[in-house]
Amino acid sequence: MTTGATHTAPGRPSGIARSWHAALRRHLIVVALGNLAWEFAHMPLYTLWTTGSWAEIVFAAVHCTGGDILIALSSLTIALLTVGTGAWPAERFRTVAALTVAFGLGYTTFSEWLNIVVRAAWAYSDLMPVFPVFGFHVGLSPLLQWIVVPLAAFAWAARTGNQRHPVEPLRAV
Q1: pLDDT reading at 13 higher than 70
Q2: pLDDT for residue 159
Q3: If I label 126, which of 15, 19, 24, 148 is the partner at 20 to 30 A Cα–Cα?
């Protein structure tokens, strides 16, 4: 198998190049829509739900979604640079997906600590289930968000529509 994109004609990438492009596009669409839905769905788990105006709540959800997209894209990029190959997603798809989720979870844990403990920029409501991590409590919803949404995005990304270069399917472990 080749390790990078080849060209069949000037300016026309082969199946692998189309495959990574389609996978990346599908991944980012699900990341954006999934995180936007998740941000609105878990808003009642933050104090802003009861203390903020509707405009503040909508702004927070959209603003956080933008951050989520950047975190997801950064996590995927670092995973691809670390363990990916030029033939991704046909090769090392699950390894890249697992590392991307790990990076997202790591950053989320740091961000929750920074914004809740250090900056006090936001707070959990009494409805937020929390999980102890490194001596502080992190919300279960943001942790689940960085497992569920990326895995859904990778599952959709695996459907590149390119039968010549299939992607390793994601399977529950």
Answers
A1: no
A2: 83
A3: 148
CA–CA dist 41, 148 (Å, integer): 14
pLDDT-derived band at 169, boundaries 50, 70, 90:
low
Q: What is the CA radius of gyration of the chain?
A: 18
Contacting residues for 145 by C-beta, under 8 A, at least 6 apart:
35, 38, 42, 68, 108
In angstroms, rounded to a whole number, what is the distance separating the alpha carbons of residues 39 and 36? 5
0.85 surpassed by pTM = no
Place of tokens 């890249």: 96
β-bridge partners, 139? 130
Beta bridge partners of 7: 13
In contact, 131 and 140? CB cutoff 8 Å: yes
Higher pLDDT, 173 or 27: 27
Instruction: List pLDDT tens digits, range 33-58.
Output: 999 999 999 999 999 999 999 999 99
| Residue 155 reports pLDDT greater than 50 | yes
